Amino acid sequence: MKEAVRIQQEDFSQDEEIRALQASSKRIGGIATFLGCARDFSEGREVSEISFDAYGSMALSELEKLRNDAIEKYGLLDARIVHRIGTVKGGENIVFIAAGAEHRVAALEACRWMIDELKQRVPIWKKEITPQGEAWVTPHP
Amino acid sequence: MIKVLFFGPVAERIGHHALQVEHRPGIRLQDVRDELAAQYPQAFEIVCFAAANGEHVRDMSLPLADNSEVAFMAKFSGG
Question: Which residues in chain B have Cβ-Cβ distances shorter than 8 Å to A123?
């Protein structure tokens, strides 16, 4: 089975991640997921692809801490986080987060918390590649 | 030596992904930052975070051991 936290170039399967989460515990009563995708339009410009750079070892360790923190904070039964790096084309998947809990509220809140925290503390940067040129993305709140 | 890493927009402004700074007794993270910021002011304009040996560091007075790995980073934009 694939690791629960991964950084990888290749695309991922949401179904596979959800199956892995479900397989971790039969006590799970609710799974909340977040899928981040590459938009093909940003700041009034067409975006053909997005290129990611990461401080790989630190990003992975921060994602692992983030998952552990979420499990503890929300009493999750399990959680999974997969983030792509390299080049991602418009419409493709970037990040997938899944939180499994006994009840829906913990799963939904934990999922929202994990994507918000990921943006604050995981050293990954995205650059939008447009027909007019390339630009590093300024973080959105 | 201290290995200094740069990523994304900071690496682009510096023109390198890594540099080395000579280690000296008592050197602190702030000293490395000051030294490099003087050489690469445009890159350090966008530096918001620092890390030492793969961990976030908020206290820039952290003393650095020889062979430390540090990073000066712009705001993150993953996700």
Answer: 7, 49, 51, 71, 73, 76, 78
For A61, the closest of B9, B54, B74 (CB atoms) is B54
Q: What is the pLDDT of residue A67?
A: 98
Half-sphere exposure of B55 (CA within 13 A, CB side): 9
Tell me, letter by letter, the H, E, C secondary structure of B20-69: EECCCCCCEHHHHHHHHHHHCHHHHCCCCEEEECCEEECCCCCECCCCCE
> Does A53 contact B5 at a Cβ distance shorter than 8 Å?
no
Q: What is the CATH number of the domain that holds A82?
A: 3.90.1170.40
What's residue A45's pLDDT? 87
pTM for this entry: 0.95
- Residue A44: predicted pLDDT: 84
Determine how many CB atoms are found less than 10 A away from the CB of residue B10: 26
Quickly name the fold that domain B2-73 has: Ubiquitin-like (UB roll) (3.10.20)
